[in-house]
Amino acid sequence: MESRSAIRRENKRQEKQKNNREHVRRHPVFIVWGTILVALLMTALILNQTILSSKFVKHEITHSNLSETLMENVNSELSRYGVSTGAVSEHEANKLITQAVDQVYSGESIDLNLQPVLGNLNNSVSQAASQYGITGQLSSSVESNINSGISNTVNQQLNTPQVKQFTGAISIAKTVVHFIMLVSSIGLILMLLTSILKKHVIRSFSWIALWSSVFLYGIILGLRGVVTAIGAYYPDYSSFTAQLATDFYSRSTNYWLILLILTIALFGWRITIKVFRGR
Fold first, then answer.
1. Which of 17, 54, 225, 229 could bond to 105 as cystine, CB 3.0-4.6 Å?
2. Is the pTM of this model over 0.90?
3. Across 83-236, where does the E strand assignment appear?
4. Per-residue confidence at 64, pLDDT binned at 50, 70, 90?
């Protein structure tokens, strides 16, 4: 005959199994919505810190061949005025690109400060003229023509109709991403409070974190594929888009790993609770 303590343990076990079955039936919709909100929030955070971040894009451009392309075109334009190549250094070309990216990501038209370039140009011409006994600075008309030539070259590289379309698209994308971050954050906070009150926060959010990490990794792979596909349509920038896709994936997986670690921690906590309750 079973003892009273054994009967009580069996009753508790059956009651626990019943509660677990009720929780499973009760929270599938909760888990689905939570998964959607977490995946949206993490995707928005990743985009906000990568493709939609001027800091990230500036780093990508200045560490690619785009800065060299701009420098070569500007120096080529200067050579038409008899100035030796190398008047614009790579550092100055990167500064021009940095200005352009900041303006584009602020929703502004590109208006680069070319005074440092013109100052170097003026000095270069003055030094060349001094070899023939000629002193003085560039005349205002010559300087104006050179300024116009440089501006045209830079505009061909940066201030194109496509760039204006890109500027508008970036502004819209940033607005949408910020809206998603706000709505998903509010939704998750409300869900967290609800799960705390109903005492299923660990159980529900462990599954939410698990499914979110699965979907988020798929989204990251998809976005990397989109960036790579864009490079196929623009062969001249294929090396840059390949670099961008690689660095985007590397940065994004850091956020994915945070979510994965949270998932492991939540399931680890559940296992720990079960072990202690089973004693």
1. 54
2. no
3. none
4. confident
